[in-house]
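[Solved] Which block belongs to which protein?

Original post:
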Amino acid sequence: MLVFTLIFFCAILYYIRFRRMRKPLYEISEVLPSVGDLPVLGHTHWFIGGPEKLLSNIKQLANLVDSSGGQAQIWIGPLLYYVTLNPDDVQKILENCLEKDVSYKFLQTWLGDGLFVAPVDLWKVHRKVLLPIFHNRIIEEFLPTFGEQAAVLVKLLEEQAGKPEFDIYKYITSCMLDIVFETAIGEKMDVQHNPDTPYLRARSCVMSIISMRLFKAWLQPDVLFNLTQYAKIQRENIDFTHKFTDEVIKKKKEQHKKGELLKEGKKDLLELLLNRDFNFTNEQLREHIDSITIAGNDTTALVIAYALLLLGSHDDAQDKVVEELKSIFGESDRIPTKEDLSKMDYLERVIKETMRLYTVVPIIGRKTQKELKLKNFTLPAGVGCAVATFVMHRSKNLWGPDADSFDPDRFLPENSVNRHPCAFIPFSFGSRNCIGRHFGMMVMKSVLATILRSYKIKSKTINRLKIEILLFPVPGHMVSIEKRNP
């Protein structure tokens, strides 16, 4: 009996201490508006369901936030989030809150302290070292690789020409994997001809489990997740992907040590890292390379596939792209150069409008490290901040009554001059924005230009979406293609 009494009083003392430590959070929650919450559960019920239902719930909740003035508090279990659709607040958050939110911990199991998920102190040091290897001049040296792999893609798509609709994303993502592997580690993987490899299956498996865990509350605590079969499956597949990258790094470091790598000419990103005056450990190299290959592939492949879907259902826009490409290339099928890409003004607007409508990273999560003064109040340290980019990019308050429609001319210079810098943030914003944004834009232009010079695209309007970390159409990226006349 005495033991139970002691346990009871210890629990009471812990709860009192817990409440006292979190007093600033409770105080700010009394100031912030709350929408759609339930007693005890808070907003947890909005984050239950399958990928399609979950995205629908998030959109509904965000609309409630929008109608309440564009800001609100969201409680998910014991975690408090500040959600804002106000570009001024978003700018302050992204410029001042550089620590990633706790939800990114599931990716850290795989990517460790790679640049995408690294703690702030480490991120600051490593970003400074990595930034020069993403200089525009270096990325432009890979343009032949972009064009060569896009040409392989066009050849493989011949098997679908004149046939019923098919999921083009599978082709695009294989092309992007070949591009990313060759630019990141100098390896010609030939994924386009061999898409079903053990390594790619392992990658896909890990992504699926992380996505499931991110949106299923009962799988989030490590103690519960480790009791499931998914923990063992995830660990085995992560180990498999790590082994692959470790072997590549080991081989490259041995070549570097023996002086076997090229002294002149184009170098892959791993070679450039080895040439930097910074002593990365093998583990750190693997974390950065894995982060580059994962982030560089999935996001750009999705934007390319969405752009084709949109152009396939908007013949007028597709015709304008093709006319622009004819003015640049004539009848030539040559690989796009830097000068060619710089002339693709309309195609660039199409890409930007695609990223606005189908922001593939729908939510950016950050955490306040210290007090953050916003317009009407101050957030205490320790509050999660959720920037709902997918909702902001479709906000009628920011983009007008036709915010849901496809209009590339929205990004004409004269239509963009007064736009808030945080109204459109497909590559995030501030010092922790996407380090590969120039790479992404150049590769998307190059691949899209190569496809559209060869094929006419037809598709249906996108009606149903789902969230699996990134944003996907429920039926897939379904298109039909026909060869263009020579």
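(Second protein starts here: sequence line, then its structure tokens.)
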Amino acid sequence: MSRNSTNPIFWVSPHFDEWQVQTDGTDRPEALFDAKEDAVEWACRVAQHRSPGIVRVVDYHGNITSQFFFADMAGDQDRRPAA
């Protein structure tokens, strides 16, 4: 994915008995994981690498349960939970 003026959004969501990470606007997941924690960790690493980026985690009902912002700040990358 190339960098552009919009921040990529990585969605972590349940997919049957697995957890998927899917980039906003794509048709297929980028990755599948057995555990939610592994999916969140992977999505955060990718979002940090592609910063600025956002990770949004949703539950089985589609509710956003957590959100992380990653920004490239003068070479330092920052991970902050959303308020």
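Accepted answer:
You had them paired correctly. Confirming on the second one: The two ends are 27 Å apart (CA to CA).
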